[in-house]
Specification:
Helix 1 crosses helix 3, helix 1 packs across helix 7 and helix 3 packs across helix 10. The protein has 12 helices and no strands. Helix content is 65%, strand content 0%. The chain has 228 residues and is mainly alpha-helical.
């Protein structure tokens, strides 16, 4: 079972999808360029960026295998669906259609070092955040189904995800599994990516999460840049 693949698709589609709707690849570009200081310099966050990058590359490989003639749309394109989102982030995440730059090998190593247990914790964090306003809409359920299709999830992975969606883990249960600040940052970033901050319920949830995880103002600001 490779929950990291599912996590990568969820992060790529949500982060880059928001950038697309705003007419910008800003969040995807930041996700792909995770060097430097602060949150983006953390190995775990770099791992999340690489998994999102790999989700795109897997999508691109399947397009080639199927003989797809789809082209990478320009920034601000109105293309829809996960395919359109992944095509748009090609350059931002190192795709060869827009950039010949390979991802930092340290990011790949960090991704490979992440366990499926940790990936599941972050997925559960995303699901808990999606339930923050009290319900999970049918549109959101369909979106997750599409993400599972894109990740080529197995029957066992689909059953696990359906169980998690129908029975989200209490936040206290999830937070009890976080025993260092790097994991706290990853959990907050994944949770932030799962929701928009336009509703009062979501803003309240993110504030609660920030306080419980001891996320600094600078770290929260970087999370906003990565997942606007």
């Amino acid at each position: 079972m490779s929950l990291k693949r599912i996590l990568g698709v969820m992060l790529a589609s949500r982060m880059a999808g928001r950038g697309r709707r705003r007419g910008s690849l800003g969040s995807a570009a930041l996700l792909g360029g995770l060097g430097g200081r602060g949150m983006r310099g953390k190995a775990g966050v770099a791992a999340l960026g690489y998994m999102a990058y790999q989700a795109y590359r897997d999508h691109q490989s399947r397009q080639r295998a199927s003989g797809s003639t789809a082209h990478t749309p320009k920034t601000g394109s109105s293309s829809s669906g996960l395919g359109g989102i992944f095509d748009q982030i090609a350059g931002a995440l190192g795709g060869e259609t827009q950039s010949q730059e390979a991802p930092d090998p340290r990011h790949q190593q960090a991704a490979e070092a992440m366990s499926d247990d940790r990936a599941l914790l972050l997925i559960r964090g995303m699901i808990a955040a999606a339930h923050a306003d009290g319900t999970l809409s049918m549109d959101e359920r369909h979106r997750i189904t599409g993400q599972l299709d894109e990740a080529e999830a197995s029957a066992d992975e689909r059953r696990l995800m359906n169980t998690e969606i129908e029975n989200p883990k209490p936040l206290d249960t999830l937070l009890a599994q976080i025993d260092d600040h790097d994991t706290a940052i990853e959990f907050y970033l994944a949770s932030r990516a799962a929701v928009d901050s336009e509703t009062e319920a979501n803003r309240a949830y993110l504030t609660l999460l920030r306080n419980r995880l001891a996320i600094t103002e600078d770290e929260a600001r970087e999370a906003e840049e990565l997942a606007p």
